[in-house]
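Dear colleagues,

As part of the handover before I leave the project, I'm documenting each prediction I ran so the next person doesn't have to rerun anything. This entry is a single chain, and its sequence is reproduced below.
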Amino acid sequence: MRYCSTRAGARGRSFRDALFSGYAPDGGMFMPENIPILSADTLRTWRSLSYQQLLCEICCLYIPEQEIPRAHLQELIAQALSSFSVPDAVRLVHLKDSLSILELFHGETLAFKDLAMTCTAQFLQYFLRRDRKRATILVGTSGDTGGSAIRSVLGLSEVDILVVFPRGRVSRVQELQMTTSAADNVHVFAADGTSDDIDVALRKLFADPELVRRHGLMSLNSVNWSRILVQTAHFLFAFLRLSAGDGADPRAELEVLVPTGGAGNITAGCIMKLMGVPLRLVAMVNANDIVHRAVQSGDLSMSDAVTQTLAPAIDIQDPYNLERVFWLLSGRDGVMVKSLMEEFQETHRLNLPAALHQQLCEVLSSGSVCDDGILETMRRCWRDNHYLICPHTAVGVWRHYHCPISPGAQRCCIATASPAKFQEAVHRAGLTLDLPEAVLALDALESRYEVLERWDDWESRLRRHIQSIGAARERRDQGT
C-alpha cells in the first residue's frame, strides 16, 4: 500500500510519510493509491470480531507489514484503547423505532476523536522511538480535537504539540481540557477568530517545506490520513452489528447519520462504502450548512461568517476533508481536484461540476438543523428513551424524528461526544446530568495559554514559537 496526494503532486509515499505529514507538499491531502474491496465472505468472517479486532484488520490493509508488523500493530492498538471506560472502547445502544446510537465518546476527553487520536499517537511513538526522531505537532481545533490531541501525546519526550483554538467559540469543558495541561511539551493558543481563520494560518505554515523538514512539523487534525483510517472502523463495526446478522440480506444497507463539520467522519464512511460495505450515509450539519448545500445543489460556498451554534465542534465553513471525497468520486483525478480546491481556497466559492455533483448525491444525503431543532431533539430523545445526547449527536438524531425509515430497516447515529462536555446546551434543553469526576476536577486546575489577538500576525507568532521549541530542543540535546 502506497499513498499519494489528492492534487497529483506526490505519489508512492509510505504510510510513515503520510503519518508524519500535514498537508501534502502540493497542498493536497494524502490518500491510499488503492482502496481494498471487502468480499461478502470476509464480512461474514469478521462478523464476530470485537471493535478492537476489526480496527486491527482494517489497519493491516493500509499499513504494510514491513512498516509496522501485525503483532506490533495489535499491541499498539490495544495500548491505545486500554484507557477507555467501556470494555471494547465503543458501545452500541438501541433506542425506540429502530434507532441505534454508536457511542464513540468513552475515551479520556469524552469525544470520538480519542479513538483515532490515541491510535495515531501510538503509531507516531512507534516510529519516533525506532528512528530516534522528534516531531512538532501543530493542531487547529473547533473544540474536541485539541483536548484529545493533547491527551494522546501528554508528556511524550519525542513530541511537542501546539494547539490553537477559537477563543469564546468552544464549550468551557473543551477549553479547560486544552488549557489546564501543565506538561512541558504542550503549548496552547487562544485565537480571536474562527476555526476556519485558524486553518488559513496553519496551511501557510505547512506549505513551508523548510519549516516542516527542520522541525518535523506534522498535523493531528483529520488532515492526517491515520485519523481517517481509524475512523473507518466505526462504520464497519456498526454495519456488522446491525445489518449483517444471521438471515440478514447481505445487500441491505445500513443508514448512518453522521454529525459533520470538517467531514473527516463522513470521508471515512465513504471509504468504507467504496470498500464494499452497503451503507447509506447522511451528513448532518448545523446552521453552518456548506456540506448540505454542496449535496443539495452543488454549491460549495462559504457563508460570510461562521455561525456560533449549540454544536460548536461542527461550526465549520471549510469542510476540508471533502477534498478527499471529491478525489475518490472523480476517479482519483488529482489534476481536476487541484483546480477545484485552489479555486475554492482563493474565492471561497465553488460550483461543483455536474458529473461530480451527481456522484456526490449518489454517495451522500444531507440535512441541516438549527439550534431550536437541536434542543427539541435532545428533549424528545430523553422523553422517548430516557437517554441523554449531546448537541452534536442531536444534529444527527433530528433526522430520525423528521424522516421516518421503512419498516424493518436499521438506522444508526454516530454519537460524537458525551453530553457532559456541553452542559449549557443540556440546561437550555431543560435537562439535567451528573458530571463525571474528571470534568468536575477541571475547575480546580490552573489554565495556561497565550492569546492570538485578531490584529496579530498569527502565522509569524506560531512560526516563532515553533522555532523557539526547536532551539530549546537543540540546547537540551547539546547539554546531554
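The radius of gyration is 21 Å. The CA atoms of residues 3 and 33 lie 5 Å apart.

All the best with the project,
I.
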